[in-house]
Amino acid sequence: MEFYQLIKQRxxxxxxxxxxxxxxxxxxxxxxxxxxxxxxxxRQPWTFVVVSSEEMLKKVRPCYHREWFQNxxxxxxxxxxxxxxxxxxxxxxxxxxTDLAIAMDHIVLAAENExxxxxWILAYDYEILAKxxxxxxxxxxxxxxxxxxxxxxxxxxxxxxxxxxxEVVRYI
Length: 172
Description:
The chain is an alpha+beta fold. It has a single domain, classed as 3-Layer(aba) Sandwich (NADH Oxidase), CATH 3.40.109. Helix content is about 35%, strand content about 15%. It contains seven helices and three strands, in the order ααβααβααβα. It has helices spanning about 5-10, 25-35, 55-60, 65-70, 95-115, 125-135, 165-170; strands spanning about 45-50, 75-80, 140-145. The protein starts with a helix and ends with a helix.
């Protein structure tokens, strides 16, 4: 798909077919897009945790109570290690959030290219999720997204309200 069309048609999917899992080959292509994302000083401080088994989904789903999330056949958790991220010496700014946001964005766009729905979520219960996935002491959860195919009959809204270019650009 042409890139500009891809980014225009991408949207957060909130309706998943619980019976239709994404194939492991497709998941690998999507995750590879995250793997090759740029990171500060090329530190790549991420781990992508794919939750697919029914046993683990039952542990993870309580972290976010929306009904559509409960139907997602797979859930991706983006985890980072602050100790592995680049730190700016001048002021101690750690690049972890920027690095993980870039990786997540690559993953979301790759999923769209594969016809796989995603919804970038930050409003989850951190403690429930950390316990469910066995988060290590040095790790932090950045974001989660379902991975799945939209339910039959789902239609993209294609009416996203976005600010005009003139509203968001300043030439100096």
